[in-house]
Amino acid sequence: MKRFKALFLNLPSIVLFLFILMAIFANVIAPMDPNEQDLVARFSPPFWLEGSDSHYLLGTDHLGRDLLSRIIIGSQVSIVVGICAMLISGVIGTVIGLLSGYYKTVDQIVMRLADIQLAFPTILLALAIIAVVGGSLQNLIIILGMTGWVPYARVVRSEVFSLKTYDFVVAAQTIGVRDGRLLYKHILPNIMAPVVTIATFQVAAAIIAESSLSFLGLGVPIDVPSWGNILSEGQLYMDSAWWISVFPGISIVLVVLSINVLGDRWRDVLNPKSKR
Questions:
Q1: 107 pLDDT more than 90
Q2: Is residue 232 part of a domain?
């Protein structure tokens, strides 16, 4: 109990919780319309620099749009993509891993497919698919979800291989428990710890992938505020208006770092062999 309490009462948890709250209530707390343009106030610096405008706390971009509002609204895109992609890949990978670990015939097919996919970097595979089907929020979520199943499948498969030899599984098979019920009721609950750990890292990976694809112009549409789109727009003005790229970059780093640190701590908490 103390370890779970320490897990949630730390700086990474607080930072991530604040970003999630920001994403949930983005439309309420955003001070301005993120797409409202004010060309007179273009390239207005953050409030602590000379020549700033008190209406724009973090400054404006090349079209005079409020950067703070765009970062707040952009958090919705990044966090929604990360969570939804993780759920899709987690469900697919866990189901495939269960079947692969339990049935030898399925294992031969699935593992060859996993080897083929691992031969291509995930971001490169996503780039190729998006180039064909087009970029949109829905397509991005589906593509990242469909390409992220391999880590789940491989870990779950190895766990099922081990659990199949346990007495409670053998006893269930002996009394005639059906395979579907055996997998769902007896094996699945015992493999959730590594699945949860992988899921935390997959959220961070999906956020980075979304930002990278949007930065390259292949993610969400350019008119949708996202951290990757803001970074892409600001790269041309790094010398004169560094704040356009720096603040969304800091947001990405804080969220991804918080998730990764929490993932490490989840692994320690959920690992029964851990003494910490």
A1: no
A2: yes
